[in-house]
User: What shape does this take?
Amino acid sequence: MIVRRQLPSLLNLLDRSPAVVVLGPRQVGKTTLAFELARSRPCLYLDLESEADRSRIAEPELYLARHADELVILDEVHRLPEVFQPLRGLIDQGRRDGRANGRFLLLGSASISLMRQSGESLAGRIAHLELAPIDVLEAGPERAQHVWLRGGFPDSLLAPDDAQSLRWRQDFIRTYLERDIPQFGPRIPAETLRRFWTMLAHQQGGLLNAADLARGLGVDGKTVARYLDLLVELLLVRRLPPWHANAGKRLVKSPRVLLRDSGILHALLGIRTHEDLLAHPVLGGSWEGHVIENLIGAAPQGTASWFYRSAAGAEIDLLLEIPGVGLWAIEVKRSLSPKLARGFHAACEDLQPTARWVVYPGTERYPAGAGIEVVSLPELAGVLAALDA
Assistant: This one.
């Protein structure tokens, strides 16, 4: 059992809010986290993908009012968006009766639509928490290579061997394309979306070029934007925005696109083992995306993330604006002897960050001059997580 770092945050949110929605892709461990929480308090669990459970709350005000003294867990809540309006009345009634917080825990797989639905109906009554795949801090040093190759989905990471892990990820991709994604919007041909997803994998970490993607798929730019929006909403792809606050420089305006889970990236590219990965052209992009996702996930609540690239070649892989701390500049290198390009120093001169880091695959931490610290991924992730403690 891998204990998720988000459990204390979830407990804290339930103590302060009537309802909490936990967002995350399918199979990431939302239900397991909810059951872990259920050990500490009386709970009612309803799976809204089950016809039987949906029929039990055909009249939600009547049914849920009978469970006012329990934490009600509604799994896959995006399947029944009409439940949000009745929850508002139940929460307000609970407040009048002295049961203000910790009433409802909602689990869902689509971030934008679910946040919009819950925000419109439960404004001021709901908090949000994102559950990402297992990261390097949760996996521990003994699984460091596994979590990069296999990704952080629990069934993939904890598989008995690499072959079974890959098989699980291939099944996961197929299920998403054929069963899950059609639930969230207009029908998209599964093979077309697979090709699009694979094209993004080949360009891991690159600047978004919608025109090239559209030509490759034989569709228009608006269709590409719709496909990308869907994968972003399902928390499978990240659009990392460019830094735009420095008006004195000509800056790149296109976002970078990264598959959020390295294991899904490798499955789409047919990478089976660590040796296969080391010989693949996506090695650098895979490592960079793995580092960026882990650091963003470990950063304190409210942290904003960007990358920086100017027309003159100044570049920083990841910028984190941390509340109460300042701007951190982070460069990602795959080499055990990382050499910094002139562009990183030029970008730091432009932005004057409060901290400058280089993340590499080694274990030793050492200074590299000019206020730069070279550090391992687990150590820097631990530094960020400690800021939120």
